[in-house]
Amino acid sequence: MDASETRGRPTAEEIDGLLLGMPARYTRGEVAAEAGVPPDLTERIWRALGFASLADDAVAFSDGDVAALRRVRMMLDSELLDEQTVIRMARALGQTTARLAQWQAEIMIGAMLPPDEEPSDADLTRILDTTRELLPGFEEVLGHVWRTQLAAAGTRLLTMADSQAEAVPTRLLLAVGFADLVSFTRRSSELTERELAELVEGFEARAADVVAAHGARLVKTLGDEVLFTAPTPAQAAAIALDLVEADELRIGIAYGPVLPILGDVFGTTVNLAARLTTIARPGAIVVDTGMAEDLGDRPEFEVRRIRRRSARGLGVVQPHVLRRSPH
After folding, report:
1. Which of 51, 55, 142, 241 is the most exposed place for a label (fewest CB within 10 A)?
2. Angstrom distance (rounded) from CA 275 to CA 15
């Protein structure tokens, strides 16, 4: 008999012990005092990381929390970061890792539990045991991937800053694209929950692969829609053409100034790309004038102007249909 079958259901304490490695010893006032960080700043960091406020007498913090707060204090004392930047970094870290942790947990559970069945205590224990074996490797890979992504982000910003008039990367010229699954509402009503999950995950995976292959960035996924950016119109056009060959989509792309904030992108260019997506017919790619002008002399693309349309909040726009050149 497997050892997991003789043990009871895993407890919250077991999970915390495995993943955190240290027992809770401090209240929020005590952890702030131990780390030498003002209690109000400690609470703001905790909320920015995405955790609920706790009662004054709740013992919920470990020596690991003390060590992390001491690092924050050292950054503040050295004036490498100010309090506002610390809070913004904490919010970025909290939101990103919360989604990552939830996503990874769902993958593991889906891979290890029998589908459409109530998990037994032994099933849950087996997941915990597998996590214990995989955790060191996952943690090492996470650190490596984060550093690699940080290097890629820095290189992208440096390249764009060098190629544009504005040296400070607060407003960039980018191609912004939305790719929207056709008839998603109808299709989702015809599918089981598992089939719907497979549809969405498959679409997002294919989109992520195509965007990465062309050296661009997948900004976010919205279930039946993805938002991506590319440094050049040619890269964005190649992405769109590959995407419509893999899925039944409508795609809108605009090229112009973009404001990057909190890992997302904002501005009129983004809004225009979204409006062009609603104009596009199923299986079509619609681009703005900026894209069309840049792609016009490229033999691998074919751009055709269509009638002008009214775009909500943007007035009348001149759309163009993008196709792969037949030559």
Report:
1. 55
2. 46
What's the distance, Cα to Cα, between the start and end of the chain in Å?
66
- Residue 12: left (phi > 0), alpha (psi -120 to 50), or beta? alpha
63-76 as b/e, with b when 16 or more CB fall inside 10 Å?
Answer: eebbebbeebbeeb
pLDDT in tens, 235-283: 999 999 999 998 899 999 999 999 988 788 999 999 999 999 999 999 9
CA-to-CA distance for 273 and 60, rounded, in angstroms? 46
For 195-204, give one letter per residue: b (16+ CB within 10 A) or e.
ebeebbeebb
Closest CA to 42 of 34, 57, 17, 16: 34
3 state SS of 172: strand
The full length of the chain comes to: 327
pLDDT tens figures, 82-138: 999 999 899 888 888 888 888 888 888 888 887 777 778 888 888 888 888 998 999
Which helix H or strand E contains 254, and what residues bound it? strand 249-261
d(CA 255, CA 317): 13
- CA 66 – CA 33 distance, rounded (Å): 9
Token pair, residue 118, equals 């109530």
The CA-based diameter of the chain, rounded to the nearest angstrom, is 73
What sign does the CA torsion over 10, 12, 13, 19 have?
positive
pLDDT in tens, 57-83: 999 899 999 999 999 999 999 988 899
Cβ partners under 8 Å of residue 232, min gap 6:
175, 294
The structure tokens 């404001």 sit at 259
